[in-house]
Amino acid sequence: MIGGGTGDAGGPGGATAPDAEARADVAPAAAPSARRSGEWARHWQYAGLPGLDLLRARYVRHTFPRHSHEGYVLGAVTGGIERIGLPDGAVDAGGGGIVMINPEVPHTAQAGAPEGWAYSTLYPSAQLVADIAAETTGLTGTAGFTDAFAADPEAVRLVNGVHRAAEEGNALAADSLLRVVIARLLRRHGGPLPARTPAAAGARTAERARALLETRLTSPPSLEQLAQELGTSPFALLRAFKNAYGMPPHAWLTDARVRRARRLLEAGTAPAEAAVAVGFTDQPHLNRHFTRIVGVPPGAYRRERAGSARTYKTAGKGPS
C-alpha cells in the first residue's frame, strides 16, 4: 500500500488554478512548548473549518493502540518516522510523506525511529471529502485513498499551511488550502472504496454483536454471554468480529467509548461525568484510554474546543 503518484490528471475539474494559487509560502506555526519528555500535542477544532479536526504533535514513547476513525486521516510527517500498523501490514512514514487512512480502517501507530516522529494531521469528515471529490474528480461511489503512504513534500507543505492559517484565524486561507490538498491527494491517490457485499453468516453475527454492544456501552455482557445471545460460541464470535472490524470486541468497545466521550467533551461535559456516561469506571480510566487513542488527555481536548469556540465568537466570525 506504499504508493507513488499518478500525476494530476483528474476527472472534471482536474488540476486547476487553486493548486498554483496555494503555492505561496505558508510555514507552520511554532509548535506548542515541548514537555520534559520531548512529547507535545495539540488536538483541536477551528470553527472556520466545519467537519475537520486538527492534530499537531511530536511523539517519542507514545503508542496508539488499534483503533479507527469515523472520517479520514491525512497525516503530514514533518520529522522522524511514524510506523503505522494497517490490515495489510506496517508502513514506515518518514519526513516529507503523507499518510492516508480511510474511514473505519483499524490501525496502530508508534515511533519507527528512536527520535520518534512529528506530524501535522487533518481529520476531514466523510461528507467533506465526498463534497470535494464530487467537485474536483471523476470518482464514482464513495471516494477514498488507494495508497496508505506517499512521498509528497508539496502536500506536507499544504497541510502545514492549513494548520498555520487556522492558528492565525484566517478562515479563507485555511479553507482554500484544505480543499486544495484533499483534491490533490484524491487525484493522485484516490479511488472508489469497495462496495459493501452481502454479509456472510459470520459477518452478520459480528454486526449483531456490534449493535448489542452499542446499546450496552455502559454495561456490556461478557464474551460468553454475548455469544449465547447470538447463538454462537465465544471463539467463533471472536473470529467473526475481528474479521469484520479488525479488532476484538473488547478493543472495539473501548474505541466506541472514547468516540462517545469525545462528543460529550465537545458539548462541554466534564471529564469525570463523561467517564461515567460512557461506561468507564472513573476518570483515570477515561484519561488512560482517551490519551492512548486520541493522543491528548480529555481535559486538554475539552479546553481546546471550548477555547476555539470562544475565540471564533469573540472575533465576530461565528454565531452570536
Automatic annotation (TrEMBL):
It comes from the Bacteria. Coiled coil: none annotated. It holds the Pfam family AraC_binding. Residues 1-34 are annotated as: Disordered. One of its GO terms (molecular function) is sequence-specific DNA binding. Residues 15-34 have a biased composition (Low complexity). SUPFAM superfamilies: Homeodomain-like, Regulatory protein AraC. Keywords: DNA-binding, Transcription, Transcription regulation. This is AraC family transcriptional regulator.
